[in-house]
Amino acid sequence: MKNFSKRRHFGRHPYLFHILAIFLAVALSGCAKSIEPIRPREFQSPALPPPQASVANMAISIPIDVLKALLESKVPQKFRESGVVSKQISIGTGAGGLTDIWPIDGVFKDDIKVATVSAKWRADVRRGDLTISVDDNRVSIGTRLKGSITAEKAGIRETADVIADLSAISSIAVTPDWRLCTNTVGDFLAQKAEFKLFGLIPVSCQGLLEGKVKPKWNEALARFDLEVPEKVQLRPQAERIWEMCRKPLLLAKSPETWLVITPNHFSYSGFGQDGDAVRILVGLNALVSTFVGPCPADREVGPLPPLQKGEVKPGFVINAPVKLHYGQAREIAGKVLVGRKYKVKKNVTVTLSGIDIYGNGPALVVRADFLARSPGMAFDTKGSVFLTGKLRFSPETYRLWVEELDYDLDTYNLLVKTADYLLHDDFVKSIQGELNWDIRAEVAKRLSMLNRHLVNLRIKDGIALSAQLDQADITYLATASDGILATVAFKGKSSLTFSALPQ
Questions:
Q1: Sign of the C-alpha dihedral, residues 322, 326, 331, 334?
Q2: What are the pLDDT digits (tens) for 260-281?
């Protein structure tokens, strides 16, 4: 056997062997196929659709005591009247019992004595507290008068109770220019107002009630209607609410989250009673959204628009983003896909060695790194392919997934020329099947955060927003620079409260 040695064949140049070995390795590596398609050209994300409109219910409260005060000073507490009552009576000559009580001066005609009998009387009545209640857009007002009427004749005195009810019904409305108006009609009913002295002489204070109490009551109600629009100011309160929509509201400090309210108009549907207050149900129709990050700029909201009359349905909606970062999406899909082997055309085994996920306008892009190997191949093939698909979501399960995944056009054209074995439906479908993500936990986290911070959220002095959200619906998906952005409509009920007090 010949002694083959580097020294014998390379003589005085022992390093020539190493140089040739390195050259051969480089040459062989250059023969390995590499597929690097052009990254898909960037598309601009489409404009987001407008968020769902929201109605923030406002319980504008007018304390009943305010309305009472407008009447209390106008209706006297006490009424008093006195006078003399006369009654012409006919008495038979045998009626000695009557002459025993008091002397009767009269003229006898035949057997009948006709006489005019007089007695003094005095009536004192006191007004009770006013009661006010609200039902079916009407204000019911009432008070009871109680007292006594006393009559006296010949040193003999008799007293009876007096009871009368004053009431009123006031139709109430709010005009488009935010003036609270009432139209009040009074009523009067005497329950007990007279009796008969000695069973013979009628004594009544009906004149007092009809001549003094009832006119005073009607006068007070007329003045009440005039003063309500002036004393109970609604417009300044509404303007404060409208103006506060200019500025974003700090909802949470970490992460910094802002509540942005873009108002459209106010509407109201009626009145009711809430404890000791008249409640006006007003709805602020607005677009309500949250933003995470630096404080958004103030916005122009314009002047307060006219108040609209219509049904106010509870339906508070906050449109808030829930983001699945591309890193999270890549990690979740990569756990299943990276390292997976596929048998494709021409007995080629393709191994996924890595993936990347990012957005491109309306599409989601997947970059899949691979290594292709086959017994018939002289060298391995490695490289990357780009696939694009459409994002889809389920409102019920909060799952996101990709449909219609396919090769980007540049990738497809390159594969046709260099690696058509990758043009295999099962390969693409297998990747697509693992591109799904559950964002339920993120939605629940955001819902909890909103409910935690929307409890008496102070907007301005005397104005607070509270909301209880119990439903979350994904309404739209979009791609952002750092993740998949799901717009979620968090729904529930809300109250925006303040008090309208006399100025």
A1: positive
A2: 888 888 988 888 887 888 878 7
First to last CA, the chain: 120
- Structure token digits, residue 381: 């093939």
Give the C-alpha separation, 365 to 340, whole Å.
19
Residue 88: Cβ-neighbour burial (10 angstroms; 0-12, 13-18, 19+): exposed
pLDDT tens readout for residues 144-178: 999 999 998 888 889 999 999 999 999 988 999 99
**300: burial class by Cβ within 10 Å (0-12, 13-18, 19+)?**
exposed
Residue 208: C-alpha distances to residues 2, 82, 190 (Å): 149, 9, 11
Tell me the C-alpha distance between 344 and 127, whole Å.
Answer: 99
Residue 70, judged by CB atoms within 10 A of its CB (0-12, 13-18, 19+), counts as: buried
pLDDT digits (tens, 9 = 90+) for 37-80: 888 877 666 666 666 677 777 667 788 888 888 888 888 899 99
Amino acid residing at 293: G
Q: Are 255 and 292 in contact (CB under 8 A)?
A: yes
